[in-house]
């Protein structure tokens, strides 16, 4: 499975709408924090430093950022999601990212020192996963697909507060809204404190006296949504598309999660594909191979004409430039490779047989008998 890749905005701890100046500021801050010179021998700082640089490289480039916003990592990394046979989707598994380390500090949520995170800190919504199957040609040229997802959305009746109209939640008097309470143990010099979730508010920090009737106080409702997905030209089997903010609703004003769509591509009955290259086997007759011929070759753009030279050997491969799959990054197209296969006739009319015997005679081949039986008999006699 591909290595887990984090969302670039999360890496830099900025919102999706961050300006160039905000990006630069966040990047400078993090690059300084994780710089290898300041963290000698610290492998995790080194990894973070690389991650920060990679994220900034993409997000600081207008074009790359736009592609990333639309397609996620698949939009900026041609190898992304192609990680090994049958797999690839694993690279997008962002479900268990510890948001505390970036979002927590960014939004001012308390963490560290064994303290519980602030229950009212903004939290990102759940990441949803689904899949879609498309044809070989749809993958080559891109397509639009409508998919249906069931996701949690912020309740429209109470705008996510969970409270009935005209009412508000009370700050929990036991934990004063922190969601956790301090318990002191021991005494004198041996006093130590631990924290536990507040039982009165179940760790939410607030008490809803009159819950919203539509969401029963949860602040979110399940909705079936039809979403049109634009699948980029050049996508490969096993790659995934990430739709920003189309996942579950965020909590406490946090951003919505992403919707991850893994793409399966049905094989073609004519073409085989490897990356942006397309492979085709073209059958030709013996006479075409000997005399040369104008062949009609199928490509993903339709038929093209190709002049096969005289004396072409079976197994010869020629290249049709730019007739392959478009690069998912929009950088040109691959080529099509056509391999010549010789088709040998399995039955002949007597007229054809005569003509071939005459040809064999002209070539100086000894063919008293013709056909496969004669051929083997001849070989036996030689022994
Ligand atoms: Zn509600
Ligand atoms: Zn409480």
Care to give the gist of this entry?
With 383 residues, the protein is α+β, with helices and mostly antiparallel strands. The protein has helices at 8-12, 20-34, 43-59, 62-71, 73-76, 99-106, 136-141, 286-291, 350-362, 371-382; strands at residues 128-134, 143-154, 170-171, 180-185, 192-197, 206-207, 220-231, 240-243, 259-265, 272-274, 277-285, 293-299, 302-308, 317-320, 336-343. The longest helix has 17 residues, at 43-59.
Describe this structure in words.
By secondary structure, this protein is an alpha+beta fold. The protein contains 10 helices and 15 strands. A 4-stranded mixed sheet has the order 10-11-15-14. A 3-stranded mixed sheet has the order 1-9-8. A two-stranded antiparallel sheet has the order 2-7. Strand 12 (293-299) and strand 13 (302-308) form a beta hairpin. Helix 2 runs antiparallel to helix 3. The longest helix is centred in the first third of the chain and has 17 residues, at 43-59. Bound molecules: zinc ion (2 copies).
In DSSP terms, counting alpha (H) and pi (I) runs of 4 or more, how many helices?
10
Strand composition percent:
25-35%
- Whole-angstrom Rg: 33 Å
How many β-strands, per DSSP?
15
> Sheet bearing the most strands, described?
4 strands, mixed
Uncertain regions spanning at least 5 consecutive residues:
78-116, 376-383
């Amino acid at each position: 499975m591909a290595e887990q890749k984090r969302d670039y905005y999360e890496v830099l701890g900025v919102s999706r709408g961050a300006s160039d100046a905000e990006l630069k500021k966040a990047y400078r801050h993090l690059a300084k924090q994780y710089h290898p010179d300041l963290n000698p021998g610290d492998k995790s700082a080194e990894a973070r430093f690389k991650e920060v640089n990679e994220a900034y490289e993409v997000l600081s480039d207008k074009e790359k950022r736009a592609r990333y916003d639309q397609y996620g990592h698949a939009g900026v990394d041609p190898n992304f999601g192609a990680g090994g046979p049958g797999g690839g989707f694993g690279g997008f598994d962002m479900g268990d990212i510890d948001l505390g380390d970036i979002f927590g500090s960014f939004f001012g949520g308390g963490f560290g020192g064994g303290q519980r995170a602030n229950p009212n800190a903004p939290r990102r919504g759940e990441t949803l996963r689904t899949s879609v199957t498309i044809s070989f040609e749809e993958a080559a040229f891109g397509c639009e697909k409508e998919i249906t997802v069931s996701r949690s959305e912020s309740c429209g009746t109470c705008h996510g507060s969970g409270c009935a109209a005209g009412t508000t939640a009370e700050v929990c008097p036991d934990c004063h809204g922190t969601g956790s309470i301090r318990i002191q143990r021991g005494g004198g010099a041996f006093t130590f404190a631990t924290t536990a979730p507040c039982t009165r508010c179940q760790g939410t920090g607030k008490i809803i006296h009159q819950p919203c009737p539509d969401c029963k106080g949860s602040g979110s409702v399940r909705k079936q949504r039809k979403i049109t997905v634009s699948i980029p030209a050049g996508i490969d089997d096993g790659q995934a598309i990430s739709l920003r903010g189309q996942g579950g609703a965020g909590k406490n004003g946090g951003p919505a999660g992403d919707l991850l769509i893994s793409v399966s591509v049905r094989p073609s009955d004519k073409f085989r594909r490897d990356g942006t290259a397309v492979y085709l086997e073209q059958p030709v007759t013996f006479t075409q191979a000997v005399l040369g011929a104008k062949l009609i070759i199928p490509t993903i753009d339709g038929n093209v004409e190709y002049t096969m030279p005289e004396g072409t050997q079976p197994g010869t491969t020629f290249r049709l430039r730019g007739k392959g799959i478009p690069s998912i990054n929009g950088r040109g197209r691959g080529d099509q490779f056509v391999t010549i296969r010789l088709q040998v006739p399995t039955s002949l009319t007597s007229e054809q047989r005569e003509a071939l015997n005459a040809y064999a005679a002209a070539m100086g081949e000894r063919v008293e008998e013709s056909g496969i039986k004669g051929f083997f008999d001849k070989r036996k006699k030689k022994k």
